[in-house]
Structure formats: structure tokens, C-alpha cells
Design a protein that fits this description.
This protein has eleven helices and no strands. With about 280 residues, the protein is mainly α. The protein has one domain.
Amino acid sequence: MVRVVRNGRMKFSLGRSLVQRFDLLKGLVDREIKLLYNRSFLGIAWMLINPLMQLAVFAFVFGLILPNNSVDNYASFIFSGLLVWGWFQNSLTQATGAIVHNRSLIRQPGFPVAILPVVTVTTGLIHFLLSLPILIIFLLIDGVHFGASVMLLPLLMVLQFGFTVALAYVLAAINVTFRDTQHTLGVLLQMMFYLSGVFYQVNFLPEKYRTIFYLNPMVGLIEAYRHIFGKIGVEEARLAEVVLNWKLLGGIGLMTVVLLPLGYQVFKRQSERFVEEL
């Protein structure tokens, strides 16, 4: 009887702890969004303005100056890539400084430090979700038809969320000791952007280079999003031939499963020295 009561108390305590963590996460995400757009006239509209301005530049350069006739629905093609990449890039950039920029929270006894990188990735997820209606409008204008594969959208989002959090833990921990991490990350992300197929079709590259590009996990993720949103960028005559690359997604999933606990352990080990370093 004692064992039953004890197990019941443990379950109740665990449930209450999860609810408290979730409430804390919501509060911190709300705080993060307010800080991002504090004293901004347009506020959260900048979340859409930035990718739309990038879209305008790429559409002008590759649509008018250097016409890219090999990609159908080019506006939707670019915008989908920009949204996926934007979530990844902004999350890692913000997460790298998550510990350094929250000294007051870190110094509070009992504060769950590990939640801070998750907050930045969750904030990026909210931006991504709020931008999806704009992408859907682009898709409808381009005449793209949705199929049953769109049901895989939550799976892709979970996969990208886990992969990004894994990297965010490592970067946030390292940046506390090596403050050059944030500057180095900016350069690496800029290089990755041009190697991620955001504004071009990786499948059209020479085969000897294509394998190298697919070593970049973001290439597989971006292509998967485009596939489930009506196979964006694929010629109408080849729609039936194009299938989702499950091997590529499986590799990204396996990488996430390995990196997430590893990144958390690195973060947890480093967190013991956060107060001293700050």
C-alpha cells in the first residue's frame, strides 16, 4: 500500500514539474518575442518582412537578370527555403548568446538553465508557423496542389526542432567560454546558406558534387518541406516520378537522435561553470 501511494506521489510530482516547466517555457518565449521587437514600429511584422525582402532580391536576380528556367514556381520555391532556413539560422544565432545574455536568470538558484536554448528554438518555431499562411498564399497563386504528403509536416518540424536544439545546446555552452563562437557561427551560417539549395535545385547539380551537398542536413530538410508542399520546383511532367527521400530523412533523424543527448550532456557539464564564467 505504501508503494502505491509513493508511486502516486511520484507521478503527481512529475506531472506538476512538467506543467511548471511548460509554463516557464511559455513565459520565456513570450519575453523573448517582446524583447526582439521592443520599441519597433512594425513589431512582429519584421518576421515576414525579412524573408519577403530576400525573396524580392532573389526573384529579381534569378528571375529577371539571370533567369532560372529550370525551376517551376520559383517564388514559392525560394520562399519555402527561406522560411526553413530562417528558423534554423535565427534559432542558432539567438541560442549561441542565450546564456551570456541572461546572466540574471543564470544566477537565480534552482533556475533550469537547460531551458534557455529550447526557448530560442521555440521562438523560431513560432515565427515559422506564423509565416506558413503567407507561403500557402504563394502556393495557391502558383497553382500548386497539396497532396496527402502534407500530413508529414509535423514530423518534419519535430525533426528540425530536435536537430536545431542539439546544435543550440553545444553552441550556447561553448560561447560562454569562447566568445568568438557567435562571430564564427555567423560566417559558417553564411557559407551553409549558399550550400543549402535555398535558391537553386540541388538535383540539377553535377552528380559528382551532389553527394557533397547532401552531407549538409539542411539540404535534405529543405527538399523534404518542398516535397510535402506539393513538390515545389518540380516540372509538372515529372511530378509522379519524384518521391520523398526517406534515406536522407532517416539519416537526419539518426543524426538528431545521437546529437541531442550528446549536446545536452555537453551543455550540462559546462553549466557547472556558467556562473564563474559570467
